[in-house]
Amino acid sequence: MAKSRGRISKRERRMILGQYAFMAPQLILFVALTILPFFVAIPTLFTDRASFTDPNPNPVGFRNFTAIFTDSSIQGEYLPAMRRTVVFVLMNFVMIYLFGMTLALLLYEVGFKGGFFSVVYLPLMASGIAIGSMSVMLFARSTGTANLLLLKLGLIKKAIDIYTPVGTGIILPLLAGWRWAGFNMAIFLTGLLAIPKETIEAAIVDGASYWQRLRRVYLPQMWPSIILASTMCLIGSWSVFDELVAMGALYLNPEAKFVSIIFFTYGFAINRLSLGMTLAVETFLPLMLLGIALQRLQRRLQYY
């Protein structure tokens, strides 16, 4: 009897095989383009390899791993870049809720409108290069379109300079939040649509205001969506690169030098490939542990 209970039917077997077949192309690409190159590159971390074409790299032990703690020139570049990146990550988390959550609640309350959803999702089709170039076109100190308009309307007294810490630190998260608004809205809207209607109706009957329903009914049941959006924001914020290049991070705008730019500079601009890869790994490992913790938390909340 116990054996028959553990047996999988032909229909279930076909369903499982179909699911694996559906996953196979993406899984193969992920293993081939991410997992295998990572393990192949591990020996390079312990050498002084200057570039991919360096014919004679020499072993240096753990010198690349300790350089961030002992080399003041590396600290002078990496630590400010880390600070800028962390500030951007925090600002980006705010943008998730300012754009994504607000739009999701709006669509949920007034009704799902396919056309509006499509319009909000359209900015995601723009490339990172386009977003970065747009920020320069809008907020260049003397020629920025948005600056000229705001000055003309008297809303600002001094032009916003995209090449300053305040300009880059505020404008870039705003444009990134606008670009990913549709994606985050879809995640939050999925969580809202999963809430049983009976729960909301009972809260309304009990006299709960909208803010009480939001705090005590909506958000507690949206935790899986919130964790998923936070995880995607974490991944996207630390991997931002194209936008920074378009904003002049490589030449004109030191305030746009995030850690991704530092990795690129060491690897391809100043021929210190091994050191750049090592810095990337040292940055990646804590983020990987945080991502795993968020994923486990999401599963726990999803099946709680």
Care to describe what's here?
Helices cover 74% and strands 0% of the residues. The chain is built from 15 helices and no strands. With 304 residues, the protein is mainly alpha-helical. The chain has a domain at 65-125 and 168-302: MetI-like (MetI-like fold). It has helices spanning 2-6, 10-41, 63-70, 72-110, 114-121, 128-139, 145-153, 165-179, 181-193, 197-205, 210-221, 223-238, 242-246, 259-269, 273-302.
Report a brief summary of the structure.
This protein has helices at 2-6, 10-41, 63-70, 72-110, 114-121, 128-139, 145-153, 165-179, 181-193, 197-205, 210-221, 223-238, 242-246, 259-269, 273-302. The radius of gyration is 24 Å and the shape is globular. 74% of the residues lie in helices and 0% in strands.
Key phrases:
globular, 15 helices, mainly alpha
Percent of residues in β-strands:
under 5%
Question: What is the helix fraction of residues, given as a range?
Answer: over 70%
Number of helical segments with 4 or more residues: 15
Query: Structural class given helices, strands, pairing?
Result: mainly alpha
Q: Would you identify the CATH H-level superfamily of the domain at 65-125 and 168-302?
A: MetI-like
Number of strands: 0
The CATH level-2 architecture of the domain at 65-125 and 168-302 is identified as: Orthogonal Bundle
Largest sheet properties: none
Radius of gyration: 24 Å
What order do the helices and strands follow?
Answer: HHHHHHHHHHHHHHH
* CATH classification, class level of the domain at 65-125 and 168-302: Mainly Alpha
Give the oligomer, counting copies of the same chain as homo and different chains as hetero: single chain
